[in-house]
Amino acid sequence: MSTDRKPAPPPRRLTDESPRVTVFHSDRAAARALARRIADAVAATPSLVLGLPTGRTPLALYNELASLAARGAADFSQVTTFNLDEFVGIPAEHPGSYRTFMEQHFFSLLHLAPERIHFLNGAAPDPAAECERYEQEIARAGGIDLQILGIGTNGHIGFNEPGPELDARTHRVTLRPETRRSNAALFGGDESGVPAEALSMGMGTILRARAIVLLATGASKASCVERVIHGRVTTAVPASFLQLHADVDVMVDEAAAAKLAR
Ligand code: PGA
Fold it and tell me: Which residue from 15, 21, 239, 262 could staple onto 228, CB 3.0 to 4.6 Å apart?
């Protein structure tokens, strides 16, 4: 029986030097390729230390990883994780917390060892001490082997928001209005219910990871991706600092790649 379904086009590599850009025909294809890369890294180093993001973008990645784990194709039981950020002023169990998001979409599906899951505590009585504790935990784990990142439409990574300067270390941050807006869904669609502050790994914390992968999909990311790849390094686009790291992959779909030079 004939079928007119065409094979999916292969990924296109745009640059060979870090940041290496690879364009996939769909967001699903990008998520699949990144899931495979993570699974391969865990197979090679079962005790891998992974840095993880929240957001809509990594959902497809976490689904792919969960199905690899369910099929027995990946074993995350020895993996250590550090999440990038958390809201200030809400407990971990709050339905809008990033911790709850990760429990629902990743931790509970991949059977991680609870003692190897690391998270910033947004309800800590002394946020500065909490940030310092996190830096020390990362150092004690031997540093982050592979840091996965999403990107905000304003160019933020983690909650390192655009501004006149950036913090190198894990720190407390005031969220920009556009960032609170894009997180409203976690708080019943009410932007004013999104906490005004967060704790976030700093730019130096992120850049100390041995390898970094930025996943960006959808047309809303096309402008910031273009600035990250072709623009100058500037605190106005925090992700542009990834140009300073020697091992960065940027994995995008066609929509997010729309403004890149071909
Ligand atoms: P998104 O968020 O994946 O929901 O677009 C990305 C981010 O803000 O880092």
Answer: 239
Tell me if 134 sits within 8 A of 118, measured CB to CB: yes
Q: Quick check: pTM over 0.85?
A: yes
CB of 216 shorter than 6 A to ligand 1: no
Distance 213 CA to ligand 1 centre (A): 14
> Which structure tokens are listed for 48?
């891998």
Average pLDDT, the chain: 96
Q: Which residues are catalytic?
A: 85, 154, 156, 161
In short, whether 56's Cβ falls inside 6 Å of ligand 1 is: yes
Ligand 1: atom nearest CA of 151 is 9
Confidence of residue 8 (pLDDT cuts 50, 70, 90): confident
Burial of 136 (0-12, 13-18, 19+ CB in 10 A): exposed
Could you tell me which residues come within 8 angstroms of residue 200 by beta carbon, excluding any fewer than 6 positions away?
84, 85, 120, 158, 159, 160, 170, 171, 173
192: burial class by Cβ within 10 Å (0-12, 13-18, 19+)? exposed
Select from 27, 52, 56, 57 the residue to mutate for testing ligand 1; criterion: most ligand atoms less than 8 Å from CB: 57
